[in-house]
Design brief:
Strand content: 15-25%
Order of helices and strands: EEEEEE
Radius of gyration: 12 Å
Distance between the termini: 32 Å
Structural class: mainly beta
Shape: globular
Amino acid sequence: SSNGLSGQIPSSLANLTTLSFLELDRNKLEGSIPSTFSSLTSLVAFNVSYNHLSGKIPQLVPFTTFGVSSYQGNAGLCGTPLPACPT
């Protein structure tokens, strides 16, 4: 966290299938959360809060196991556990 990262979250991180912790909070990341991250079934901690992410949070495990604090501070993100996306 707080590494000054910018740009999109690389979908290639999904290749790290034994990754347990992914803390990308407080950076300048933009775009959406890659749905390919559903392969990260060993994640016990995931935090992308306070970036510039947008789109719907993938409704797949492991994303559905993390609370609001993992996603807050991204004005464009929506979907469980955040408020529903506009229709």
